[in-house]
Amino acid sequence: MKPDIRERLKAARAARNTVALVTDLESGAQAVIDEATRSGTLTLEGPALEAALAALRAESTGPLPVTGRRLFVRVYGLPWRMVVIGAVHVTQALAPMAAMTGYGVTIVDPRQAFATAERFPDQRLVHLWPDEFLAEEPPDAHTAIVTLTHDPKIDDPALEVALRSPAFYVGALGSRKTHSLRVARLRERGYTEAEIARIHAPIGLDLGGRSPPEIAVAVLAQVVKARYMPET
Question: Which phi-psi region, left, alpha or beta, contains residue 174 (left: φ > 0; alpha: ψ -120 to 50)?
Answer without folding.
Answer: left
